[in-house]
Amino acid sequence: MISSLAAIFGALTGLVPAVLQFFTLKANNAQAIELRKLELQAAKEGVALQIDLANVQADIQQQQHIYSFANSPTGIKWVDAFATIVRPYITMFIFHLWVLIEVGLFVAAVNGGLDLAQIVPIIWDDTTKATFASILGFWFGNRSGNYAERSMAATLSLANSRTTTITPAPTVVQKPAGSRD
Could you give phi then psi for residue 166, rounded to 5 degrees? Predict the structure, then answer.
């Protein structure tokens, strides 16, 4: 009996290193898989940053192309002066037209018997705020009205894709064919 127990324990002790090696190999494989996932994620983020850099460089080239006319004067003074003043003149004209319309709306609202609390939302609505901010942003800030939406778009889309949650589908319980319910 003791000899049979010794044989069983001997066989089991021979299996212990194999079992330990199996669990070690399983842990190493899980670690390798996790490391590969991290490498793939880093590669995706690197591509997203390259896309962002390409978009910024394209914006810079576009701006340089748009304003390239101002970099090379024609040599004719009145043509150069006209080319220089056209955009600011149009901006000032539109701004003064806007002020005239706003003053007209204010006068019409006062003559209509509205008080200041009712007039302000009419004159200074969201569209007016956005237009005014776009003009000021163009002349004194960044040159594109939707820069905040476009900047780092690839990085933001990658970040948003990582936060997406997947909800499992509801389980359907099938009833036996003979049951009533």
Answer: -110, 120
